[in-house]
């Protein structure tokens, strides 16, 4: 009777190493593709989110791009990319507001390439809402920005370190302040 032939342990490892490398390479390609697709689908909404926090379109675009830059190396480990990016973009904007010099005149965009805010062209009504948002206290503006991006009170509370009740109160006050600023009557919706 023939005994079953077994490969030496070293030979098996040598045969599986290329397979493991190929699988790792494929995961990296998939993660890059997922990141690129997410970036394309969400850069404009992330920029608008930061604008709702009080940023100019250029500041918002800068913060949004910085958040995506920080996300890329750890993309596969981020469980909730939308919330993660909003948190990082908000921090980038708030951290940089005190560091920025305000130009006296409008500076032209760099030649070549598109303007980063081209994807965030606001209509007249949206501009009125953004101006009204700027009048809100920071915490109310922050809660409203998250709400306008579709997050629930519980999700907002988790991201901002607040209770759901505190989020509800800030949201109600923000709505009331926006209605006053926009001249909406009590019976009318936003």
Write the layout of secondary structure elements.
Elements: H1 9-52, H2 57-71, H3 81-97, H4 124-134, H5 138-148, H6 153-160, H7 164-182
CATH class assignment of the largest domain: Mainly Alpha
Could you list the spans in which at least 5 consecutive residues all have pLDDT below 50? none
The main sheet comes to: none
**What's the β-strand tally?**
0
Beta fraction: under 5%
CATH architecture of the largest domain: Orthogonal Bundle
Number of domains: 2
**Count of alpha/pi helices:** 7
Distance between the termini: 85 Å
Structural class: mainly alpha
Helix-strand topology string: HHHHHHH
Shape field: elongated
Helicity level: 55-70%
Instruction: Look up the CATH topology of the largest domain.
Output: Rna Polymerase Sigma Factor, Chain: A
- The averaged pLDDT comes out at 80
Q: Cα-atom Rg, whole angstroms?
A: 24 Å
Characterise the protein shown here.
With 190 residues, the chain is an all-alpha fold. The chain folds into 2 domains: 9-99 and 115-121, Rna Polymerase Sigma Factor, Chain: A (Orthogonal Bundle), CATH 1.10.1740; 122-190, Winged helix-like DNA-binding domain superfamily/Winged helix DNA-binding domain (Arc Repressor Mutant, subunit A, Orthogonal Bundle). It is built from 7 helices and no strands. The protein is elongated. The mean pLDDT is 80.
Give a brief rundown of this model.
By secondary structure, the chain is mainly alpha-helical. It has seven helices and no strands.
